[in-house]
Design a protein that fits this description.
By secondary structure, this protein is α/β, with parallel strands linked by helices. Helices cover 32% and strands 15% of the residues. It has a single domain (3-221), classed as Alpha-Beta Barrel (TIM Barrel), CATH 3.20.20.80. It is globular.
């Protein structure tokens, strides 16, 4: 299967500074281009920063329906060391807010389309440098626990989620990051450390529990 994700976190002004209408124009052009080259390819709406149902609603209102085969989100926790099952408080910065995204899709006639989580995870690092809430870390053992629990939760509750991508496959030593806690946070997601040794989460995501305990689980990409 081939898939093309069009843009990245277009609801984040760091990555997209145009209007919603311009974003929809890009989606339509990209969709047509991908399908012209490979009619069987899956076109994925660029991964939304958090579970941003409000932004997705604007995409539909601007005529975006029909310009993607799947919707992608990056459902990080707003307080990044929060457990995956924390109940939704009605904000986009929660993993469990995903059903709100689904509701927008269903309300716009796209109930048959899946959701992909094209970035998600927890970063392994201590919080001694007092990072902001979104950059808080967990221990490596908690990282394993949350990874396994999040996949089990998705399999049990979200049959419309078909693919999940853990961010990220390996760390790149980045001692010059400014502020320094940002580099530490980004590196802590890696399944492999900067020296390429395996974090425990690497083994956990390959473990037999995937097939033995979550037989209906979505596909997991590393």
């Amino acid at each position: 299967m081939s898939a093309w994700e069009l843009w990245n976190e277009e609801n984040n002004t760091t990555f997209w500074r145009g209007s919603v209408a311009q974003c929809v124009s890009l989606l339509k052009a990209g969709y047509q281009g991908v399908k012209a080259g490979d009619s069987t390819a899956t076109v994925v709406l660029g991964g939304l920063m958090y579970n941003d149902d409000a932004w997705l609603r604007q995409i539909y209102a601007a005529g975006g329906r029909g310009a993607f085969d799947a919707v992608a989100t990056h459902p990080y926790q707003g307080v990044a060391d929060t457990a995956p099952e924390q109940p939704d408080k009605g904000t986009r910065e929660s993993l469990t807010h995903l059903p709100a995204v689904r509701a927008v899709m269903v309300g716009n006639g796209d109930a048959d389309k899946p959701i992909w989580l094209t970035e998600f995870g927890w970063s392994a690092h201590d919080n001694g440098l007092q990072p902001p809430n979104w950059a808080r870390g967990v221990s490596e053992s908690v990282q394993v626990d949350y990874a396994v629990r999040s996949l089990r939760y998705a399999a049990a509750n979200w049959p419309y989620v078909s693919v999940l991508f853990w961010y990220k496959e390996r760390a790149w030593n980045n001692p010059t990051a400014d502020p320094i806690w940002l580099g530490i946070h980004l590196e802590g997601y890696g399944l492999l450390r900067a020296n390429r040794s395996e974090r425990p989460v690497y083994t956990a995501l390959q473990g037999s529990w995937l097939s033995a305990e979550v037989t209906a689980a979505p596909r997991v990409r590393q």
